[in-house]
Amino acid sequence: MTTTSDLTGKVAFVTGGTRGIGLETVRSLAKLGATVIIGARDPQKGNEIAQQFKQDGFNVESIKIDVNVHQDNVAAYQYLDENYGKLDILINNAGVLLDQENVSIEVVNRTSTLSSAILRDTFDANFFAQIDLTQILLPLIRKSDAGRIVNLSSILGSLSLHADPASPIYGMKTFAYNASKAALNAFTIHLAAELRDTTIKVNSIHPGWVRTRLGGGAADIDEVEGSRTSILAATLPEDGPTGSFFFEENALPW
């Protein structure tokens, strides 16, 4: 799978870009020459990080956004429209895991007792917010000559693997999180099909099991490695895939 290595003139927006995979995604996109806007729930932290990038010679800015808040998503559109008039790369990176603190400890399947509050809060952040933001920003992405939408999913959203007792994730039944990522994958498939006759590519990616606050300390790759698949999907060439689900260069089953 080939990629584009020069993003000069491209504008990218990364939600949840102040830490973890999101922060490393911002760093990599900036190093490739893109102007990167960090979507930060904490505006002070976002501005501090953006300022550090600027001191290092990169074009990085930050705006306040809670993707669960519709007006914040509208404000993001207005900022991007007024300052750039387009959006080339959208990385839907923000997300939550509320079933338990992380997936690095033994997972107890609580599907039958999981509260509706956890289910709703998880879907709000991992599914509905991603759709709302993407739909709002899509007119700007349509103005790009090669728009890329990257949805941060997870291998835990694979229904095929969860149904297979022999699969390596069969025991990882964090119901709310897994179901929200499966739903996000459905959004990827449907939006990619709608946009198939445009230059926009829409893909779901699995970043790997990453040592982050969400992934836990026992995960097998660091945050830099965890950002690689996001960058791969963000820099796909004209003949790259759309409506796909992959980790690095490996296709994953839905």
From TrEMBL:
The record's annotation in Pfam families points to:
adh_short
* SUPFAM superfamilies for the chain: NAD(P)-binding Rossmann-fold domains
Instruction: State a single Gene Ontology molecular function.
Output: oxidoreductase activity
Asked whether the UniProt record includes NADP among its keywords, one would answer yes
* Gene3D superfamilies linked to this entry: NAD(P)-binding Rossmann-like Domain (3.40.50.720)
Has keyword NADP?
A: yes
Q: Which domain of life is it from?
A: Bacteria
State the UniProt keywords alphabetically.
Answer: NADP, Oxidoreductase
Cross-referenced PANTHER family, in alphabetical order?
A: CARBONYL REDUCTASE 1-RELATED, CHAIN DEHYDROGENASE FAMILY PROTEIN, PUTATIVE (AFU_ORTHOLOGUE AFUA_3G15350)-RELATED
**Assigned protein family:** Belongs to the short-chain dehydrogenases/reductases (SDR) family.
Q: What is this protein called?
A: Short-chain dehydrogenase
Give the organism, scientific name.
Paenibacillus radicis
Q: What is the lineage of its organism?
A: Bacteria, Bacillati, Bacillota, Bacilli, Bacillales
